[in-house]
Design goal:
mainly alpha, single chain
Length: 149
């Protein structure tokens, strides 16, 4: 599936999960794993980090951009009680901007590079692809949680 289509499809599917009842939001996909609530807040936060990277790559390529510790964010920002409506609004806004930038720059500027602090040299295309694949990965976890419990 191409990245632009996957960005739109995963957005649509993710938005439906923000409307789950509280009972379902507390479900997990495995022992000791994040709840659906935590996954949704994580998705919104990750979108913001990746969105910033994308904008930096377009405007100032070849920078070193730092990894972020998702577990520290989950704990420090208390994803278990974080207002889901805020995360939903953030997710929608940032994803719409990512889709716009992908439509404008995926092909034309996709080879622009940056240096990731953990994984080394990456491209703008890599980052757009990561947004889509990361979201899809978590949608699969949510589906497992809903079936499991």
């Amino acid at each position: 599936m191409d990245t632009l289509k996957l960005l739109a499809d995963t957005k649509h599917k993710t938005l439906a999960y923000f409307e789950l009842p509280e009972f379902d939001l507390s479900k997990t996909y495995g022992d000791g794993k994040w709840s659906i609530q935590q996954i949704l807040v994580h998705l919104a936060d990750t979108e913001t980090v990746l969105y910033e990277r994308i904008r930096r790559i377009i405007a100032e390529p070849r920078q070193v951009l730092w990894n972020f510790d998702q577990d520290a964010w989950e704990e420090g920002l208390d994803y278990k009680t974080y207002p889901l409506v805020l995360s939903k609004n953030l997710y929608v806004s940032v994803r719409d901007n990512i889709i716009y930038l992908a439509e404008q720059h995926y092909e034309a500027l996709g080879a622009k590079e940056y240096v990731h602090s953990d994984t080394g040299v990456r491209t703008l295309k890599d980052e757009f692809d990561k947004v889509a694949s990361h979201n899809l990965h978590h949608l699969k976890q949510v589906a497992v949680a809903l079936k499991k419990n």
